[in-house]
Automatic annotation (TrEMBL):
<dbReference type="InterPro" id="IPR039131">
    <property type="entry name" value="NDUFAF1"/>
</dbReference>
<dbReference type="InterPro" id="IPR013857">
    <property type="entry name" value="NADH-UbQ_OxRdtase-assoc_prot30"/>
</dbReference>
<dbReference type="Pfam" id="PF08547">
    <property type="entry name" value="CIA30"/>
</dbReference>
<dbReference type="GO" id="GO:0010257">
    <property type="term" value="P:NADH dehydrogenase complex assembly"/>
</dbReference>
<dbReference type="InterPro" id="IPR008979">
    <property type="entry name" value="Galactose-bd-like_sf"/>
</dbReference>
<dbReference type="GO" id="GO:0051082">
    <property type="term" value="F:unfolded protein binding"/>
</dbReference>
<protein>
    <recommendedName>
        <fullName>NADH:ubiquinone oxidoreductase intermediate-associated protein 30 domain-containing protein</fullName>
    </recommendedName>
</protein>
<feature type="domain" description="NADH:ubiquinone oxidoreductase intermediate-associated protein 30">
    <location>
        <begin position="14"/>
        <end position="176"/>
    </location>
</feature>
<comment type="similarity">
    <text>Belongs to the CIA30 family.</text>
</comment>
<keyword id="KW-0624">Polysaccharide degradation</keyword>
<keyword id="KW-0119">Carbohydrate metabolism</keyword>
<dbReference type="GO" id="GO:0000272">
    <property type="term" value="P:polysaccharide catabolic process"/>
</dbReference>
Length: 209
């Protein structure tokens, strides 16, 4: 088996910072869901809050996204790996964007194409999401003719929980030790250096809603 390497974006040798993240919840649409990202001991963060589905009639979402001004060149990687340190059994969504538009006059973000993967990880495991696993969506609807994700210019990473049309709600909690770019063959790579221990890696299970 080829060696595997990873470059940490958050966690491990890139300590988590609350200034790198901000909430983006359904309150911008009149909902009542909310989320927070708290830094725990041992350089772990907890994404937690409450997912409400009553205010918006079955819909609802809560998320933490990276702050404006951050960007990454991930073209040397095969995907992202999430180090999960604690899990409540709910379905979460990893989202990437390569294009951001100026905010509307009311402060709301303008919609652009998102690249998403729904996952329901095992407790305390590394979950790998390869680029080919991501699906392009616009305002929650999958699109078939989207241009490929610009991996040289990823401008936003989001961790989200949503109701999937009322199928999940209530308090939620997901502990994340790290987010890293990974590559399956490190021999020709100059940026991904840390070997991955295969014993603690599991495949993400898609949980489409």
């Amino acid at each position: 088996m080829d060696p595997l390497s990873r470059r940490f974006l958050f966690g491990a040798d890139q300590p988590w910072s609350r200034t790198n993240w901000t909430s983006s919840d359904d309150r911008v649409r009149g909902g009542s869901s909310y989320s927070s990202l708290n830094i725990l001991p041992n350089n772990i963060v907890q994404f937690h809050g409450h997912l409400d589905i009553t205010t918006l009639g079955g819909a609802g979402f809560a998320s933490q996204r990276t702050a404006d001004g951050l960007s990454w060149d991930l073209s040397d990687a095969d995907g992202l790996e999430l180090g999960i340190a604690g899990f409540d059994g709910k379905v979460y969504t990893l989202t990437l964007k390569d294009k951001l538009l100026p905010k509307r006059p009311d402060g709301r973000e303008q919609s652009t194409i998102s690249w998403e993967y729904n996952l329901q990880p095992a407790d305390k495991a590394n979950v790998r999401v390869r680029w080919e696993d991501l699906r392009a969506t616009y305002r929650g609807r999958e699109i078939e003719d989207a241009e490929p994700l610009d991996l040289k210019n990823v401008k936003q990473i989001t961790i989200m929980i949503r109701s999937f049309f009322g199928t999940q709600e209530g308090d939620f909690s997901l502990d994340i030790a790290s987010i890293a770019a990974f590559r399956s063959d490190a021999r020709d790579d100059r940026g991904l250096r840390t070997p991955i221990d295969e014993r603690h890696v599991v495949s993400a299970r898609r949980a489409d809603g």
